[in-house]
Write a structure and sequence with these properties.
single chain, 351 residues, alpha+beta, Naphthalene 1,2-dioxygenase Alpha Subunit, Chain A, domain 1, Rieske Iron-sulfur Protein, 2 domains, 7-stranded antiparallel sheet, 6-stranded antiparallel sheet, binds FE2/S2 (inorganic) cluster, binds fe (ii) ion
Length: 351
């Protein structure tokens, strides 16, 4: 692992250079833990998709997870409001809502810390700190769970831990476009999470190469697509790749990918774990009336493509560690979406 100054390494990429002449970001962006730490700030200040609206329809139902080292919980209150908090107890920092509780989907009346029983309302306020008699200079009204910002767009629940950044520019238009493509009539079916031994950006880069790798890496998929009709457009904080009228692959800053094809919509959310590791959460929605056989077929071909992508992403990560590589070039007509992603990241980290 290199330990160079991440700010110096950031400046080695110049977003002012057009894609035709640009060099890709240096390998340190992908392998250096200090660079990954700097990115965690950008993740805390970005709106990231953390749940689906259908997961939190009833009061007291929670979802939990971790983004950029920040454990979070989202809960709908008795007043119908969706709220988000750091899932960190104000007593000694234990997680308050457990993953098991969130997975059970049973509504909670209060959020009770499993460690010593400090109890919070669904609005995050501290209601009880059992057996804390004798404590001095303690104002319970300042000891609620720390709030995070939460909003919804289409089916997505998005969260922002810090800052005041607006929602990704272009997300609204994308959700409307997906509605035009029948997305609102689809039903959520299942979720799978994959761990990939690569930097989260390797996964996004692979997604944003404008279909470049499809013909060589995904031969089965290539046979079903008209790759000559593949088009990439950058709109604000989104990159929308289409292949004809009925296939759309869209990326939304920083880590959401939305795929619409046939009777399916699937989303991939990539979450950095460490410089060399990320999790990719897949959710699948299907049109009403699609039978189990067709769904299984779709899962199978998706799993094949995902496995091909995982293997190549892990190969790229090993290559990024090599002394033989310190940055590459873009195929400008195909990879300008990837270049836009790198420029966006540069902006977020230098801000
Ligand atoms: S850490 Fe939560 S009650 Fe002690
Ligand atoms: Fe791929």
């Amino acid at each position: 692992m290199t330990t160079s100054d991440p700010v110096d390494e950031l400046q080695r990429f110049d977003p002012a250079i057009p894609v035709e002449s640009a060099t890709t970001p240096p390998a340190s962006w992908y392998v250096d833990e200090t660079f990954a730490e700097m990115e965690r700030r950008a993740f805390r200040e970005a709106w990231v998709p953390v749940a689906r609206v259908d997961q939190v329809t009833a009061p007291g139902v929670c979802v939990t997870g971790t983004v950029a080292g920040e454990p979070w919980v989202i809960v709908r209150g008795d007043d119908g409001m969706l709220r988000g908090f750091s899932n960190v107890c104000r007593h000694h920092a234990s997680g308050v809502v457990t993953e098991a509780q969130a997975l059970a989907c049973a509504p909670l009346e209060e959020l009770v810390c499993p460690y010593h029983g400090w109890t919070y309302g669904l609005d995050g306020s501290l209601k009880r700190a059992p057996r804390s008699g004798g404590i001095k200079d303690f104002d319970a009204s300042t000891m609620g769970l720390r709030p995070v910002s939460v909003t919804t767009c289409g089916q997505f629940v998005l969260m922002r831990v810090a800052g005041d950044a607006p929602l990704p520019n272009g997300l609204d238009a994308l959700v409307s476009k997906l509605d035009e493509m029948g997305a609102s009539g689809l039903r959520w079916k299942t979720r799978r999470t994959f761990i990939v031994a690569c930097n989260w950006k390797v996964f996004v880069d692979n997604y944003l190469d404008g279909g470049y790798h499809v013909a060589t890496l995904h031969k089965d998929l290539a046979a079903q697509l008209d790759l000559e009709g593949y088009a990439t457009e950058c709109h604000g904080d989104t990159v929308v790749q289409t292949c004809g009228d009925s296939v759309l692959y869209a990326w939304v800053w920083p880590n959401l990918m939305i795929n619409r094809y046939g009777s399916v919509l699937d989303t991939n959310v990539v979450l950095p774990i460490a410089a060399d590791r990320c999790a990719v959460v897949f959710d699948w929605w299907f049109a009403e009336g699609v039978d189990t056989g067709a769904m299984d077929e779709s899962f199978e071909s998706s799993a094949r493509v995902q496995e091909e992508d995982r293997l190549v992403c892990e190969s790229v990560q090993r290559g990024l560690h090599s002394s033989a590589y310190d940055g590459g070039r873009y195929a400008p007509r195909l990879e300008h979406g990837m270049h836009a992603f790198h420029c966006k990241l540069y902006g977020a980290l230098s801000g």
